Amino acid sequence: MSLRKISLNSNINKIFSEYLNLVSRMVKHVSVRFAWHDNCWNGKICKSPEKNVYCIGNYSLLSPRIQRRIDLQLEKLCKNQAVPDVVKNEGYLPPCYWSINAQGEESFQIEDPHPFSDTKMWGEKFSANVPPLREILKSYSVFTWCFKISFERERTDQLYPHPEELEERVNEYLSELKKGESIVFFYSNYSNPVTGDKYQYLLLGAGLLKEVAKPNKYEIPADLLKEVRDKPKMKNFPELVWQFQISLDPESIIILPYQKYVEWIQEENGTDINEKWKKLEEVAIPIEEGNLIPHFKYVSMHIPHDKCIYLLYLIRKSLEKMKEHRLIDYEEIKKIESRLDRLLAVAWNVRGRFPGFPNVLRVLLKNDFKKEQIKKLIPEIETYIKNNFAGIENFLEIKTCDTSKLNPELKRAMDIILKRIDLVKFLSLFDFSVKQFERVIEIINRKVIGLDYIKKNPYLLLEKYQYDTEDKLTIDESDYGLSLYQIDIALIPDPMYTNWQAIYDAQSPERLRAVIASVLYNSAFHEGNSCLTRNEIVKHVENYPLYYINTVLKLDVNKLLEYEKQPIFKEGFIISETFGETEAVYQLRIVREIEKIIEDFISFMLKKKYNLTDKDRTDIKLILDEEHAILKDRLDLNERKKLYENILSNGVFFLSGRAGSGKTSAIIRLVKKFRSDGTTPIFIFAPTGKANLVIRSRLKNVGLQNDPLITVSTIHRFLYTKLFDYIRMVSSQARTQIFEIAEHIEKILSGKLEALNEFRSLARQFKLRPKVVIIDEASMVDEVLLAVLFSMISTDALKHLIIVGDEKQLPPIGVGRPFVDTIYYFKKNDLESNYIRLESNLRFDPAATLGTLAEFFSSEKPPFPSEIAMALNRLDKTIELFHFKDRVDLTKIIKDILKQNGASEADSISEMFSNIFEKDGSLYLDKVQIICPRRVGDFGSIAINVGIIREGYVDFTQRTKLICEKNIYTDVIDHYGKSKRVLGLANGSIGYIRLNGDVYFEDLEDVKAEYRRVNLYPIINEISGDFTVLKAERDIDFGYAITVHKSQGSDFDYVIFILSEVSPFIMKELLYTAFTRPKLKLYLVIHSSLKDELPLVLCKAYENSAIESRKTLLFGFKASPLRPYLVTLRNNKTIEVKSKIECIIAKALDEAGVDFEYEPKEFFEEYHIIPDFKLTIDGETYYMEHLGNMDNPSYRNRWLQKFEIYKKLGIAESLITTSESEEKSNIEMNIRKIIDDIKSKKISITEGGYSQHHYYI
Fold first, then answer.
1. How many CA atoms lie within 13 A of 1067 on its CB side?
2. How far apart are CA 736 and CA 766, in angstroms?
């Protein structure tokens, strides 16, 4: 043991001897939201105010207020100046003052107008008659507010609670914040440069509470107050100021140095850019745990003890990574380390050993006493225990005690406690809310469980615990679910800061089972993996923050191998071997059930085969004639014929192809045929409202838009509302079950997978019976959503399941990649009649540069720099290339592009956009769209929208393009007069405020088409409501620039793709998605720092694959979803190859005894080329390439360029190429001939062919 630890523990023992004399301490910790600041909240104006677009972002701190009040021009003039000086000299208070002084060394006076001064209705009266709030903001202090307590939660006729009740709420909230005991956690909302892309809260640091001041009151004249309170729902309008001041102990403050990492990434210092981003990701602390997130809502929220401790260990984990990186000064690291030690000591001390004691009592006494009685009784019980047992620990060791002399109420309470003293002792170890203890006791009271059973394995609570989220006024009444760390902290305390022993073996199979289950769940919902390999499990466990408590928490791989043989260890997940390897794969059983739903559904539909009728063949011919008349030679008639014949011949069919390959037009023609054949009902689904609108528009063109036998809906809206169409026709019991199904769907889609089995049981009675189901944009649909949808549909009635998408696009946001995995399964099992990828480009000439770029990033072979350079030098009408070095350059380029596309010259870019979007009363929002790889960064979508398009002006005005950032629900009335609550605006929906002030959104048009009446108030109010300025954040943002992710599922006439940096975010699927968004032209706008290396930058992006990085077990484990063909060699080794023909070649080579390597990488590093095979025959080396699509001009050109590289490498003489013979042939025999030719030194020589040695096989 180190001297430091001995010293620390001696102090702790002294502290704990005092703490253990107390029974409970009503202490809470607290979160405080900060607006992002590039000067680390040091009491100064930002160093670069114009670049800090996060401060004025929609997810900042009191975003609408900051957006309206900020003076960017003045802040630029005063950059890096102390706020007290700016207040004194300029009379300007930065509207982000709530958080700016957390590390400020000076106090200053604030004068802040009443928020109603910013409203249209009340602005003039409040500005004239209500004095601004005047208060001193102390050094090392911040303002904050818990907005949760501000509003009426029970009554709908009033917006606010009674003023006295509000004061009671505030007093209760502040009373649990204690000087020197409560720890304050600083965090940023989604508007930050670190986790903003993932829409995650970011932990910024922590400090010890020094003082908390109660809020003041505004001096509102009585007549004005009465006027406001006479308005509807405003009877309780508060005079209380919604902000209180928290002062911090300056020697305890920790601010994590994210700003230094961000600056380091932007520097040119020779470090690989991907390595830089990896380091930032390693130190970043996103709030990811589902039951932690609610404590970071409402600007400020209480945090209980164990969640506080867990957050501090997250900081320790970040600190350990900083030490490894060696980017932060040693002295700064030591300062953070010392302060973190202090905060951890305080946190453990305040927690004590039995933090749950008061809440356990509240549950045990609730049936015998009223709530007010219990509130009075608990302090009496605590006093009695302190006086008679010298502390809770001694009391919990007794079995009986004499209560006869106590007053009747206290005696009755103590008798109840003593009767269940074993339960009280055990549960008091845990820091749970009252509601959680109620549910835990309910689990323990079950006949098949019992207290002893749970005591033997407390981690069972994580498996048995089921809950509905309850977000009550206080966290003690709420339930956000349980997490592993809450059990660990109770059972395995940190010996550095506590003087009690661990009561559970950290290496037990029961605990490790819980750890692995937690790892698998988090990986599924944060990373999209439905399974993990054993090695990945080990790495994830070692990243578990509580690993830093004690080395005993480190995962022993040998012990893991031993446990894998024990049935108890595998109860929560399955463990399976991967093919040809000793590596095991772990998967949650519930996730396996989800994948099995999909597998069973697809497998059942695969059995359905149909013979084409004469009418079918006639209809197909008519369709092909119609398409050919429109598209002429751009149409591949054989490809289209195969498409239609195979769809009509099979129960399930997967249709893939890039944007512009004719997928949607094929679907509409098939719908028309199904409708005329009477193959109805037809359900058409899409993941987005935009895709729905496209389908509706196409159906309108063929007169089917209002057909009652054709349902067009987003998947979410269908799942939540479809069963309610039948509610008038069923019994009351069935109605109840329908409501239960809807509740279960909501739970499952929010990640509560334990609701799956009950949902499926109920859904069996209400399965819908369409004849045709079509899912469009299916590459955006994750496993959970697809499994829930399939559970609602009867396979018996279903004749055709048609899944449409593009497997080359970005994978879904969610678990898995079912579209890709099913195509893999079809290829692997020779189910080629159930799948097609349309290779025709009906949008562009096959030789067009944009099509070529898209093909580079959808190809199975990586592009090489010279071919990308050649393509970029061969610009045509489909692409134009620009370079910029700063905002001024970029602004000019965007203006020039807009002028090319019909915008007249104007002072502002936003006005030029409006000239394009709104003409003659019609909207053309898809005419021009800016897309970026990321939201954050100097040239991310946030910075472009705010800093360039809007020039710092962040109010929504007429003629503004918008995008919805979160799902917004609204009330509707259907065509039967039934009221429903539905998804009104989906995340990613594009909108616009017209010149006349009307608000348009794509999704709203879809909802309006589906329902008789739609309540637009929630959406309109979000955009232009008078009280929007009072909100903490906005869920609708500017839509001029959006991320590539948000653009998926949409296409636009003209796309401006801004690529400003190299980062891990730039993946091949992202580039492919970007290159396939334009219908007419792409403007590729590149930062000048990338100009000379652009081909190489794009080549490296190909190496990053979002699809390949995911692990799934849908239709079996796969090392790569792009290699579906398995070849088992004579030595029992199994290799995966990409195509069927490569599979045949590999088998033939192996059977001929040829030593070969598939896709050797020896030329990749320098030239980015990978041959198909490397052969070693009689000591000589040969290379083999199969040329599979030489009829495609782009493919052919790529090969000719690649062949030139082979010549340059000097191996053209050793290169053999093959292509398939037009006549039927024996491929294996032909491969054998090639081998014989090589061995006999008689390799065929081809003049003017694809290579010097070309064979048709």
1. 18
2. 12
Distance separating alpha carbons of residues 1085 and 1072, to the nearest angstrom: 16
- Identity of the residue numbered 127: S
Rounded to an integer, the average pLDDT of 65-87 is 95
- What domains can you pick out in the chain, each with its CATH number? 24-264+293-317 (no CATH), 608-838 (3.40.50.300), 849-1103 (3.40.50.300), 1125-1256 (3.40.1350)
Closest CA to 1082 of 861, 826, 882: 882
| Long-range contacts, stretch 670-673, CB < 8 angstroms, 24+ apart | 670/644, 670/774, 670/802, 671/699, 671/704, 671/710, 671/772, 671/774, 672/702, 672/704, 673/619, 673/623
**Does the pLDDT at position 940 exceed 90?**
yes
DSSP letter for each residue of 605-661: HHT-B-PPPHHHHHHHHHHHHHHHHHHGGGS-HHHHHHHHHHHHHBSEEEEEE-TTS
* Residue 993 · residue 1019 · CB < 8 Å: no
**Strand, coil or helix: what is 789?**
helix
Residue 15: band (very low, low, confident or very high) from pLDDT cuts 50, 70, 90 = very low
Q: Is the pLDDT of residue 22 over 50?
A: no
Least confident of 61-65, 177-181, 622-626, 1232-1236: 61-65
Provide mean pLDDT across the span 749-764: 93
Tokens of 998: 């009307």
Separation between Cα atoms, residue 1084 and residue 880, nearest integer Å = 6
Judge contact between 1085 and 893, C-beta under 8 A. yes
Half-sphere exposure of 148 (CA within 13 A, CB side): 18
Residue spans of alpha helices (H) in 795-908? 818-828, 849-856, 865-873, 887-900
Kind of pairing between the strands at 244-248 and 300-303? unpaired
Residue position matching structure tokens 């993990």:
532
Q: What is the pLDDT of residue 579?
A: 57
Cα(854)–Cα(1070) distance, rounded to whole angstroms? 11
- Exposure string of 866-889, with b = 16+ CB inside 10 Å and e = fewer, is bbbeebbeeeeebbbebbbeebee
Q: Kindly state the average pLDDT of the residues 1013-1035.
A: 69
Query: SS3 letters for 729-756?
Result: HCCHHHHHHHHHHHHHHHHHHCCCHHHH
- Residue 7, pLDDT above cutoff 50: no
CA distance 472 to 478: 5
**Cα–Cα distance for residue pair 951/1165, rounded to 1 Å:** 43
Q: Cα separation of 393 and 952, whole Å?
A: 60
Q: Residue 16's pLDDT is what?
A: 44
| Least-confidence region, from 12-16, 239-243, 360-364, 810-814 | 12-16
Residue whose structure tokens are 């500017």: 1038
Q: Which residues pair with 112 in a beta bridge?
A: 133
**For the packed helices 663-677 and 689-701, what is the interaxial angle rounded to 10 degrees?**
60
Token pair of 561, please?
């191998």
Average pLDDT over every residue of 29-39: 98
Residue position matching structure tokens 């959680």:
436
Average pLDDT over the chain reads 91
Point out which residues pair with 299 in neighbouring strands. 146
The whole-angstrom separation of Cα 113 and Cα 111 is 7
Q: Indicate the DSSP class of residue 837.
A: E
Q: Three-state SS across 984-1048?
A: EECCCCEEEECCCCCEEEHHHHHHHHHCCEECCHHHHHHHHCCCHHHCCCCCEEECCEEEHHHHC
Q: What's the CA gap between 987 and 964, in Å, rounded?
A: 5
